[in-house]
């Protein structure tokens, strides 16, 4: 996704890159804002998982709730919830009870 934020890409090139996705619009800050948003969600989840916070919420843009596991969608480049869930599972060795898809 970093490629979409290159300064060498103009408005028309970004529009062409976005066209296969559902309601995505790329600008020269898309990659950075998506990475910061995903990182913020992960940081809040880490703080809760470590017991430093009782609960938390990350009010971020883009929110990351439309993206699929393998594709950007609905102006979300990454699935922030999926990313932070995997981070927590892997970092503190939580294994969920019941059927899981990995």
The count of domains is: 1
The radius of gyration is: 16 Å
Mean pLDDT: 76
Along the chain, the helix and strand elements come as: HHH
Strand content: under 5%
Approximate helicity band = 40-55%
Task: List the uncertain runs.
Answer: none
Q: Give the total of beta strands.
A: 0
Largest sheet composition: none
Q: If helices are DSSP runs of H or I spanning 4 or more residues, what is the number of helices? A: 3
Give the terminus-to-terminus CA distance: 23 Å
Supply the helix-strand structural class. Answer: mainly alpha
The backbone outline, from C-alpha atoms, is elongated
Protein name: Histone deacetylase domain-containing protein
InterPro entries: His_deacetylse_dom (IPR023801), His_deacetylse_dom_sf (IPR037138), Ureohydrolase_dom_sf (IPR023696)
Domain Histone deacetylase: 15-84
Describe the structure.
Residues 15-84 form the Histone deacetylase domain. It comes from Sphagnum jensenii. It holds the Pfam family Hist_deacetyl. The chain is mainly alpha-helical and 102 residues long. It has one domain (9-90). 40% of the residues lie in helices and 0% in strands. It has 3 helices and no strands. The protein has helices spanning 11-18, 30-49, 80-92. The chain is elongated, with a radius of gyration of 16 Å. The protein starts with 10 loop residues before the first helix and ends in a 10-residue tail after the last helix. The model has no long low-confidence stretch (mean pLDDT 76).
């Amino acid at each position: 996704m970093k490629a979409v934020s290159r300064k060498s890409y103009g408005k028309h090139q970004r529009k062409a890159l976005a066209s296969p996705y559902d309601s995505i619009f790329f600008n020269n800050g898309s990659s950075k804002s998506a990475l910061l948003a995903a990182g913020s969600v992960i940081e809040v989840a880490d703080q809760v998982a470590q017991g430093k916070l009782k609960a938390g919420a990350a009010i971020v843009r883009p929110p990351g709730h439309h993206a699929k596991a393998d594709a950007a969608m609905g102006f979300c480049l990454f699935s922030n919830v999926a990313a932070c869930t995997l981070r927590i599972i892997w970092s503190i060795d939580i294994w969920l009870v019941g059927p899981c898809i990995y």
